[in-house]
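Homework-ish question, so no full write-ups if that breaks the rules, but can someone show me the predicted structure for this set?
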Amino acid sequence: MHTPFPPHVLPVEPTHAYRLLNTGASVLVSSAHAGRRDVMACAWNVALEFEPPKLAVCLDKATLTRELVEASGSFVVAVPRAAQADLVATVGSVSGRDVAGQDKFSAFNIRHAPATQVDAPLVEGCIGWLECRLIPEPHLQQAHDLFIGQAVAAWADERAFAHGKFLALEATPPEWRTLHHLGAGNFVIPGAQIKGRQLAPRAPS
Amino acid sequence: MHTPFPPHVLPVEPTHAYRLLNTGASVLVSSAHAGRRDVMACAWNVALEFEPPKLAVCLDKATLTRELVEASGSFVVAVPRAAQADLVATVGSVSGRDVAGQDKFSAFNIRHAPATQVDAPLVEGCIGWLECRLIPEPHLQQAHDLFIGQAVAAWADERAFAHGKFLALEATPPEWRTLHHLGAGNFVIPGAQIKGRQLAPRAPS
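A: Not a homework solution, just the prediction itself:
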């Protein structure tokens, strides 16, 4: 398996892939089928399983991404970084159906590279990527817009995520931190790290 | 409908309830049935719909919470604040099956109040609460551990979330910010807010 973007991008162990999603960051979902491709922002994503890594993304019926995911049976979930906030806001508010004569990659000059296991492109400059095969669940897709994927390859940029986890926050410049969508293109990014202590149970009365 | 915790806790409009989950914070899931009750931490949660507000939480088969959700057909999703990190880490690592002779509420002295629409208790001191009725999806629950809820009431503490959105970060002391789980009881909390600008598409070539 080749590494798509040397030298900083390294494979992520399957058992650690869920950690890319665990903090609830907004992601990009990219897809491609039969010469068409699209990418959208997705705040409504969730990890579902450690091994094999599974996740779900909520894809509105109006999106071109959804059409291409259904047609191709695969997609890529990428975790963008704060430096990409404009890109995330833009692909989150413009439909791939509305960039006449081209697609979002060309319309917004989005650098990308081929994935290793699926047809969907990898958007360059992100923190991490999960190449996913769709686990078809027609009722779930229709009734709740949820699409379940199994990650068949995962990658991360070691400047933000290495050895299976995010770097300590103090080692991560703000532009390399995750984006958490408040709404309308407004995001919060992590600013402090805290550890929850284990409380001791009191004796039953 | 009464307000569970006056004077700072106010109802959230149904169309704004999803915003409590949009940034991907870890939540608490509480449940009750036939005199038993439980509460657990859940990083794997996702909003699914604006109106009526829907969401999904991933509940492992080993959890008592899951058993009570299945039995009662309802649950509460609460968005805890950074000041509750110890509580979140604790109820996230101890099973309700392992606090012999009591439950987590008594074992860890968790203050709570009755909900208005469901039997599950509301953990006090959180940022917001979504009282949910389970939308039964047996295959989804069994195959992917996903439980879909429709929020039938929502509440938020105006010191963190008011008028349908989180307060500006500079108006929110760190202890009132959301918790985003890295793993093993380590959390990041928001530290900066940024706005993604809309990029202009370039003309098709």
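Now go work out the reasoning yourself. Hint: The mean pLDDT of chain B is 95.
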